[in-house]
Amino acid sequence: TITDATIVSTSNDDSLVIKDKHRLSDDVERIVQEHLKYVSEDVSHGWDLIHQDGEMKVYRREVEENGIVVDPLKCFHTIKGVTGHELCQYFWEFQYRMDWETTLDSTKIIEVLDPDTMVFFQVHKRVWPAAQRDSCFWSHIRCISNSEEDQPTWLVVNYTTSHPLAPIKSPQVRLVANVALICETIICEPPLNPQDIKRENIQCKLTYVAFVNPGGWVPSAALRGVAKREYPRFLKRFTSYVIEQTRNKPILF
Ligand code: H13
Fold this sequence. Notes:
ten-stranded mixed β-sheet, globular, Alpha-D-Glucose-1,6-Bisphosphate, Chain A, domain 4
């Protein structure tokens, strides 16, 4: 039976999926919808291009709240030979995280809310001139079909939450974040038979957006310097990792 405690949606192959709701379902839904709306807003006004390397473009808007830098960040990239599903899977799944993350000391799953939503606790490397940071966030992966013909959009959202299993222990400071990776697969010169699609026929348009509050004062210039260096580094390392991992595997649409 379908009740208020269930969510009905369509999966990758348009079959109906019924999921049990959990205590954060409404939050997850709201934040996912916000990101889907925000992703198509352009960056022509008020955004600075802080890094460009081939197809990769990293923009930010300088914003401070109570003297703390909380610059929104928006990155665009096009990656050849991988799908949005593959990128999102490698970004979301715990087992691959430490292979591509260079800014973490540790990561662990502290709760499974449903098969697509986990709560993580992570300890970040001390990369800036201040106390060490940790984070506690739900991480949700989702596939959204746009139309019969188009490839679905895949996304992952990481959003800060509090959790009894992750109390804040000073002097460690808690990062507050709202991050999304949104990916769209494009099939170039599609062969007549979809079965014949090769990696050379696919590319993926990636958008990565991050709102991160360091949770306590950090010198502005130092923090902006770290962000300018680390986000492009993350994008380059993460996307190369996925290309490498999927090279000889069947394509995951
Ligand atoms: O998105 C990235 N990593 C995710 C998986 O580990 C976790 C991330 C997150 C961060 C913080 C809180 C909650 C979730 O989504 C890649 C992150 C790359 C980071 C580059 C370093 C940025 C330095 C600026 C820090 C501002 C305080």
